[in-house]
Amino acid sequence: MASKKNRSSRGPKEAPRRFKKKTSVLTIEKVEYVDYKDVDLLTRFISDRAKIRNRRVTGNDVQQQRDVANAIKVAREMALIPYAKRVSSQRTRPSRDGDSRFDRGGGDDRREGGREGGRGDRRDSEEPTEVAPDAAGGDVETQEDEA
Fold this sequence. Notes:
With 147 residues, the chain is of the alpha+beta class. 27% of the residues lie in helices and 7% in strands.
């Protein structure tokens, strides 16, 4: 807790900022009952990552926010609204050791110049297997020799 000496050294007490209270979408559209099946209305109260927006952002009062939150939770349970949405922002990060971590194709060049005992290919000791169809119609695994 701050002492009186510290409080008085902050300067003259300023009036708190006045802001315009947001009006709720529910009061503007005169919605009496928030239905969980009304997905268009409920999506106005969730963010782009499917999180429920708080009262300060939406302008709802306590009862409206409680009704909206319960309706969103029921709609999620009924699979009308997703629990979470994936954000498709691809950021390219520079690799630390010059080896591209995101390029998983090719495998051979990673094995030859890769790290020993690291997160290399798990099939280092095995020969790659190829599935060839059998004459009888079944599948037979054959060993392919690398030259």
